[in-house]
Amino acid sequence: MSPTVFRPQAVLREWWHRVSPVTRARSLAERRRAEDPTEEPGLTDVDRTGEITTDDGVHLRYYDIGPEDAPVTVVFSHGFTLTSQSFFLQVRHLRRIPGVRCVLSDTRGHGQTRLPESVDGFSVDDQDRLLTVEATGRDLVRVIDELVPTGRIVLVGHSLGAQTVFAGVRLMDDAVRRRIAGIVVVNGAVGAFSRHGVTRLLGSRAVRAVWRAGDRILPLAAVLKRSVATLVEPTLATVVFHEALDEGESSRHDIVAFHASMINETSVTTILGFLDELATHSEAAVGPLLAGIPGIAIAGRKDAFAPVALTEEIARVWPDVPGHPGEPGVTVMELDDTGHMVILERPEDVTRAIRGLVDDALGDAGAGDG
Predict the structure, then answer these.
(1) Residue 211: phi, psi to the nearest 5?
(2) pLDDT digits (tens, 9 = 90+) for 286-304
(3) pLDDT tens-digit readout, 247-267
(4) How far apart, in Å, are the Cα atoms of 286 and each of 169, 171, 177, 189?
(5) Could you give a GO molecular-function term held by this entry (predicted)?
(6) Which residue range forms the structural domain that includes residue 166?
(7) I want to staple 232 with a disulfide (CB 3.0 to 4.6 A). Which of 80, 260, 281, 312 is the partner?
């Protein structure tokens, strides 16, 4: 019999497989699903869905949940390489509140939203024209105009969706802006994401060179993306998600696999198209327009992509409560053991923040009716 050979690399791999966040989260999710096999992540029982075609030919897919005549509507904007499905835990709770409606749309280049059929192969010019924060802000305004022409509005934006919300506030008419009852931004930024954290790499010469290569590297990038697809999930488990994933509502689902599936379904065109925006775009000019709008800005203390410093910048831009100098117009929440996916890691905290603004808006709507 040959002697047993000690292989430290194999032992380390087995140890990591057993204790890694993805393994812990999966084991918890499997146990919960054994108790309730219907627990699958994603939006369910959507009342209405359809498409809105923008002036530049993008077909925005929307999801509409709750009574169309609700006095308060929560309008969601999701993050980069995600879809509207990422807010399923918040929507699940909000839909139970009488008088509340939820409207979500897949950001251009993401999910079920379709880019113009005439764009085939996509050039750098197409990216410059179609895949911008400015365009996502216009889309948000269009969704509100088409689907929520009346009533109070609470805006919710995560990551890139936070800049979409700020752009929308800047671009919308005063009459629409006055209907905003509150804003919740999560893992967001008002300035360029590349100012702090890992995303500073987006401003590096190497990444900028990749972006400038544009359509010349798209075929190669697509092949590379497919080849590393299997690495997305373990990378998320070790870099993006943290201890909070093992607790609460998120432990009922295989959140890491759910997140990885959204990333893997995002096209290389979209990923490359938004790189320059993430590196350079700023919505700091929206500051004065936020005066009088209650805000909540939520950050994960372990977020390497949109660190707390970016949320602190949001607080500096947001004006004080009108008539109360020194009283911040936005409440900052910093959450422990949480990274860039607070909406999935600590969904209860995000839902409570939204619920507080919704309750205030419902009270205002009731007082107005009286």
Answers:
(1) -65, -40
(2) 999 999 999 999 999 999 8
(3) 788 888 889 889 989 988 888
(4) 7, 9, 12, 12
(5) catalytic activity
(6) 9-369
(7) 260
